[in-house]
Amino acid sequence: MTTPSFRDVEQISTFLDGKLPPEEAARLQMRIVADPELASIYRQLSQTRTLLRKLPARRAPRNFTLTPQMAGVKAPTPRSFPLFRFASAFASLLLMLTFVANGLGQLAANAPAAAPAYGMGGGPMTEAMEQPAAPAPRPQSGGGGEGEIPNLTAPSETAEDSAAPTEESMRSLAVESTQTVEELPAAKMGGEEYSTREIPQAPVGEPFRVPGWLQLALLVTALLAGGAAWFINWQAQARFGRKSKK
Amino acid sequence: MNESALIHDAQHGDLEAFNRLVLAYQDALYNTALRILGDEEQAADATQEAFISAFRAINSYRGGSFKAWLLRTVTNACYDELRRQKRRPTTPLEPENDDDEEIESPRWLADGSMSPEEKFEAAELEHAIQHCLEALPTDFRAVVVLADVQGMDYAEVAAAVRSPLGTVKSRIARARLRLRECLQDFWELLPAAFRLESEAAL
Predict the structure, then answer these.
(1) What span, in angstroms and rounded, lies between the C-alpha atoms of B109 and B115?
(2) Which of A192, B3, B97, B172 is the one with CA 20 to 30 A from B143?
(3) Domain spans, chain B
């Protein structure tokens, strides 16, 4: 009889689990039968092992199933969702670009119109000077266009010649002078017939404008695609929520 | 239950498939955690943590016993919990009396609420074993729970605790010896059948 070493204990433990090679197992069995110390250890370990294996299995106090929140799972988005989202974003971007393009077109159209006005008069174009660009109503009083030119000069000559102008002549002078202000450019063209409509204007190009129907179409596309993307996503979330509650 | 198909689906993010696996293995994981930690609430927490970790890491599962793989996650969760306990110590295992001395026969060994005798004896035995398990070092406790309570193979235990096979064999032998010594104190509580069983087997 020898004092069992830990190596013996380990062998007995492994033997109990059936993990000892057959030859070693046979040798150990013979030793256990022959050695009461080893037999005692064998019994003790076997009893302990049996006790542990007979421990009652407890049932889980609750279900440990995972919710999507616990698992960090997001609802799967349908394949069409990114398509609609992209369409909406793209249409919105294009719509914004059309507004920018319209703004730039307007600026470009205004810029050349302003430049000659500075060149001709040497100063800023006044409102009064701009008005002839619009078709101004021709004055009806005082006869036709031919008769006005003498009228234009006549008052000034009359004013110079006459040392004491009458009240009536002053009034008529005031009325005619206001009328002739509008006719002045024509008068200064050397008496040539030159209506205000024919005054050479700054070369105002037709401003670039994105057609309104295109903007409307883009707006509708952006709204519809955005709405569709939202609805698809909402539906998927709702379906996922119902599924995870089951 | 087609386990392979469920694992495959779970690896592709199917939470429902994973939850079916949870239902199949939750008792095993909870029992393991309970035996290692010795506290029902902590065991439940560790089990839940283990399943969450398992779902997140399910793509790292490369075949073999899925139960063993899950038990590894719960063992890790228990180790984490035990480390947390070390950082914030709790009440002593043995109840104490007014003089701060440990009561010889703790109240849980004589729980009068369990009226049927058999239930009482079973509970006593379970408590005694649990008490001895908790007295073991953590590494010994984990291997003996996995091998003897869960009936895992040595290789599976080695994989679960990430230790060499030889170390596992040695730890199991030492753990059984220590448990045996501890249970000597409660031997009178054990049914005679347990005492005679191994002798008859020889």
Answers:
(1) 14
(2) B3
(3) 1-90, 114-202
